[in-house]
Amino acid sequence: MVGDGLAGRGGLMAAQASERGSVQYRVVFGKKDEAVEGPDGAEVVITVPAADAGLDPAVAFMQGRLKAAGHTGRLFELLRSGEVAAAITRLASRP
User: Which residues contact 7 (CB under 8 A, 6 or more apart)?
Assistant: First the structure.
């Protein structure tokens, strides 16, 4: 039952995170070669090199490999919800 409560809370956190403002994700494959998801002028812009896309996003941020511009509190909410990991995985696996 404890696990059920955590899963519900994670879903709630993800819903709250997506309601709070726009986010743009960028995975950089090379110079002028990026996969981008999200609007220009987003509240938070998250950028990671493709080589580091397999890392846990929170760890990559602490190591300086994942860069973020914008509201840091919002970034931490996104990291906690798992939204950052899902978006980076999606973008890094481009065809």
Answer: none
* φ, ψ of residue 41 in degrees (nearest 5): 75, 25
For the chain, domains (ranges, CATH) are: 2-92 (3.30.1050)
Q: What are phi and psi of 31, to 5 degrees?
A: -60, 125
pTM (two decimals): 0.77
Q: Helices (DSSP H) in the chain: which residue ranges? A: 2-19, 57-62, 72-81, 83-92
pLDDT tens digits along 28-77: 999 999 999 999 999 999 999 999 999 999 999 999 999 999 999 999 99
Query: Which is higher by pLDDT, 18 or 95?
Result: 95
Question: How many C-beta neighbours within 10 Å does residue 8 have?
Answer: 10
